[in-house]
Amino acid sequence: MNYNQAKFVTSAQKISQLPASKGEVAFAGRSNAGKSSAINTITNINGLARTSKTPGRTQLLNYFEIAEGYFLVDLPGYGYAKVSHSVQKAWEKTLSEYIETREQLRGLVIIMDIRHPLTPHDQQMIKWVASYDIPMHILLTKADKLNRGPANNVLLEVRKALAEYGYLITVQLFSSLKGMGIDDAKFKLNSWFAES
């Protein structure tokens, strides 16, 4: 897949508005964990996914086409978004429906800030997605904020904590700022798209 050719296609508020798709990989994560930055880094296109210092900026399912019929999907962040309870509930409903019914979903990339991995929201998300046998790949973002030793320790701790999920979950270090882990992330995405 040539991620550098990614282009924004549509934003959907409801499942009925999603585009026809041969295969897609979705990006999920706690609000402000660095989802949009990760998409921009993997595609090497600044500003493709809109980044914001304000948690909860992504309120729709944003579709980026990387090849004809193949997409990266930016999902609304979960957890601490500064939005009303009713909006939060509407997102949760859409997200549930998406995970439960979207047959073209090949895998879920979960973004976690390496300094705050496996929050209760993250663990809830993982447990729920695993119940549908959807493979997950965790990017421990902002890995540049820690020295190599401590960063590797967190990586090992997270892998150990998620060992019960076996082959369903893989974990890596990632840094948008330093360009760390981009090839590993693309390799994982490619393996998922190859199954389409």
Task: Write up what this structure looks like.
Helix content is 33%, strand content 23%. Strands 1-3-4-2-5-6-7 form a seven-stranded mixed beta sheet, sandwiched between helices. A hairpin with a 2-residue loop joins strand 3 and strand 4.
Brief description of this entry?
The chain has helices at residues 35-43, 85-101, 120-130, 148-161, 182-194, and strands at residues 7-12, 23-29, 61-67, 70-74, 105-113, 136-141, 169-173.
Write the layout of secondary structure elements.
Blueprint: E1 7-12, E2 23-29, H1 35-43, E3 61-67, E4 70-74, H2 85-101, E5 105-113, H3 120-130, E6 136-141, H4 148-161, E7 169-173, H5 182-194
Parallel strand pairs: 2-4, 2-5, 5-6, 6-7
Antiparallel strand pairs: 1-3, 3-4
